[in-house]
Structures are given as structure tokens and as C-alpha cells.
Amino acid sequence: MTDTIVVTGGAGYIGSHVCKALAQAGFRPVVYDNLSGGHRHMVRWGPLAMGDIRDPASLSNCFNRYKPAAVIHLAGLIAAGESVKKPSKYYDNNVRGTLTLFDTMLHHGIDRIVFSSSAAVYGDPDSTPIPEHHPIRPVNPYGHTKAMCEQLLFDYTVYGLRSISLRYFNAAGADPDGELGESHEPETHLIPLVLQAAAGLRSHIDIFGDQYPTPDGTCIRDYIHVSDLAAAHVASLSIMDDRPSARAFNLGNGMGYSVLDVVRAAERVTERRIPTRRCPARPGDPPVLVADSAHATNALKWHQIHPDIDTQIAHAWRWLKADNVRVNTSHRLKKPSLLATD
User: Fold this and answer.
1) How much is the pLDDT for 336?
2) C-alpha distance from residue 339 to each of 48, 262, 285 (Å)
3) Is-catalytic flag, 142?
4) pTM, 2 dp
């Protein structure tokens, strides 16, 4: 019998790619989403159960109806900058909502979960590449919420919960088949912002800081293709321990690209000039964030198929052009105030 997997946040960017990967691997994905950040048209590989992770009654209805073997939890707020201004919003959704999810799962006898965590749990790292044993010391509320949820998973092993936390670095690209892609409102990620500038939807890209101790003075980040990220979630389901446990893995490329590297790669792919504007550095932006993903490669028997930044950008560019009918034309009217790093 085909195992059913409930994917919270499955109508979003990463979640929709995870659902496609699950279906291709023979699972039945059920999307549980309130559509606050996701899109109904991204739900294509299984049913949509409308609901909020803070609502135990809606969760119970979903679990009673579909009887999942496991949960993949991606229904989190992700904008670190916003979390500084609105910490209550982030603790409410990311911590209270996740705690409600865990408790409701256990009430229904569901004891396996893959959790969407983040490299933000590391804060400003001592060195890179960053291994999983690096100290956990987040520097913003968003990172704190992810670290708290990982601690909850560790503590909940006493109730029999088995979990894997996947610490994402920078998800990038789009489905290689052109069926899915990134569509946030507002957009905060570097690659889609740069491509929107290439498409004429934004006048320029702001680059925050050009005096960092890096080869070109701009921040360096680690970009992993979203389809490779999705594959790691499927692989995680197959290595859940027989006994209660809480394990964590980095998911990154292992290679760093600067902000200017990304702009130049986008210019190569799109064959268009992308205007940039230099701005003062933002407080708290580490110069370099690159993952050591060897542990995930070995334990999950997982490897990247699309590590090249030009390929990631090419897939995202094809999606943006195909999805242009859904691009909000109000972007043309807004004064850009764009993030230059993820």
C-alpha cells in the first residue's frame, strides 16, 4: 500500500517540489496549507487539506482522513529581517504552531517527521564550511524559532518521536521540467530578485556592502538547487531510526558564490545587463556562509544533480518567463528596497 505523507506548507516553493519528489518516489503527498504564502495552483500531486498548523482540530481532521505514515513540516515563516521587527508573529507560527503539530501527531500515533530547519541556527559562524557540530547560536528571532523547534524534537524523543531536521542553506532554481518555481510576495531571495531585474520588473538590485573580506568584497552564500533539496526530504524518510531519535543534517552545495557572482551568472544566462546599486552593509550579515554537507551525503545516500549556479539560474529564469502572466505588475511601481543576500 502506498504510504501517505502529509506535507505542511506543501503549496509553497520548497513544499511543492517536495510533493513532486514524493510522488515520483511512490508516496502519496497530502498538502496541509492555509495558503498564506503558498499557491493553490502549485498543489498538483495530491489533495489539498486547508488548515493552519496552530489549529489542532484542523490537523486532527487531516490526520483522521488521510492517516499519514509521516509528516514533512515546511509551514514556517522564513524572513529573518521581518522576524526582528515582528518576533511575536514568528514565535506564534514557528514555535507554537510546530508544538501544536507535534502534539497532534503523537495523539494520532504518527511518530515520524522531517523538519525544515535552517542554517540560521548557526548565527555568525566561527569558520566555514559549517559542520553540524558547530555551536547553535542564532542571531535573530527566525533562527531562534528554528533552534527551538530542533530542541523540541530532541526533547520529544521521550514520547517516541523520530525526526530528522534538515538545515537548509539557500534554496535556488526551479523544477527542471518547468512545472514549478519560486513565487513569493514580497520576494526576498537574491536569485529571483536578480532575475526580476533582468526581466525589467525591477529597476536595479541593491548590493548591501562591498568591503567584506571576500575576493570581490560582497557576501558569499551557498546555493542548493530546490529539486536536490526536495530529494533529500524523500531520502530522509527511508533512514528514520527504529527507535526514538532526533538527527540533523546540513543541506547545501559546499560551494560559495558572492552576490556579484550571482549577478554575473544571471547576466550570462539571460544575456541581459542587470543594474546594481551599492549600499551600506547591513548589521549582522556574515561575510561567508557555506555548508559542509558531507554528513547528509553519506547518511542519506544523497547527492546533488544540479550544483552549478548557472544551471540553477537557468531553471529559475525559464520558470520566471513561463510564469510571467502571474507576476504582480505592481512590482513596476514600487521603489525597490531589495535584499542582496539570502
Assistant:
1) 31
2) 32, 13, 11
3) yes
4) 0.91
